[in-house]
Amino acid sequence: MERKPLSPEVRKQIIIAQRTEITEYHVYKRLAGIVKDKENSAVLSKIADDELRHYKIWEKYSGREVSPSKWGIRKFYWIARLFGITFGIKLLEKAEERAQVNYHEIGREIPEAIAIGKEETEHENKLIAMIHEEKLEYIGSIVLGLNDALVEILGTLAGLTFALQNTKLVALAGIIAGIAGALSMSSSEYLSNKSEGNHDGALKSAFFTGIAYFVAVVFLVVPYLIFTSPFVALIVAVIDSILVVFFYSYYISIANDQPFRKRFTEMVVLSTVVGLISFGLGYLVRVLFGIDV
């Protein structure tokens, strides 16, 4: 039976789908080759095979070969290497959703397209869920460390900025408070995990919490080592805290399929309120005790 010629719009959609599938095939294939965990490697290879099969189906209808996006391959490969396999491939899948491939529109002329679209969303999601990545098990510890540092240290810096009005002294106090806070958070996380029976992961949880706390402290204190005006340094520190919240909220929203806007807004509002309260307390301390540094 002779196949009907495709409409220009459907043909355009198929070409987009082909490029997306073959690009993802190369990304998954490269990742499967470098992942040490054999089970994860097998899952990635299976997804790669699915992408290649879909590409060949589209090729049958378009009648032409389509080259992958070399930039897309490099970009998502290195994102996965730097930020984790789960984050990288989920970001890749979200990029596929934005590729404007309308399976229902294609399905009017190619019924097979509906099944492919369903497989893209259901089957691949199941496979991705099978990937085991150790760092995601400790995402709660990382969030704990970041949240506490941003709220506590930003509040401390805001209060000291008005009380002392000396960038070097504020930076010194911030570093001391940051190191003490990181050690305190790490030990608390370690004891908390031990008490809950998580003996194997207690040390790693403590490590991730402490490192996350310390990284946040560095972002907040550095402006006081760069700028001479304590109030400019405070403004930059606040901007830094918002950027930190933005990036880790975005990371969690992608890696753990959680709402981005709600988490980001809550954290920014909380940090801002604590900062304002601390700033006011610093002013009161300066006035009441007549501090003049």
TrEMBL record:
Organism superkingdom: Bacteria
Keywords attached to this entry: Membrane, Transmembrane, Transmembrane helix
Transmembrane regions listed in the UniProt entry: 138-163, 169-185, 206-226, 232-252, 264-285
Membrane topology: Multi-pass membrane protein
Family matches, as CDD domains: Ferritin_CCC1_N (cd01044)
Subcellular location as annotated: Endomembrane system
InterPro entries to which the protein is assigned, alphabetical: Ccc1_fam, Ferritin-like_SF, Ferritin_CCC1_N
Gene Ontology cellular-component annotations: endomembrane system
Keyword Membrane recorded: yes
MF GO annotations: manganese ion transmembrane transporter activity
Name this polypeptide is given: VIT1/CCC1 family predicted Fe2+/Mn2+ transporter
Major location (coarse): membrane
Organism, scientific name: Mangrovibacterium diazotrophicum
Any one of the GO BP annotations: intracellular manganese ion homeostasis
Pfam families the record matches: VIT1
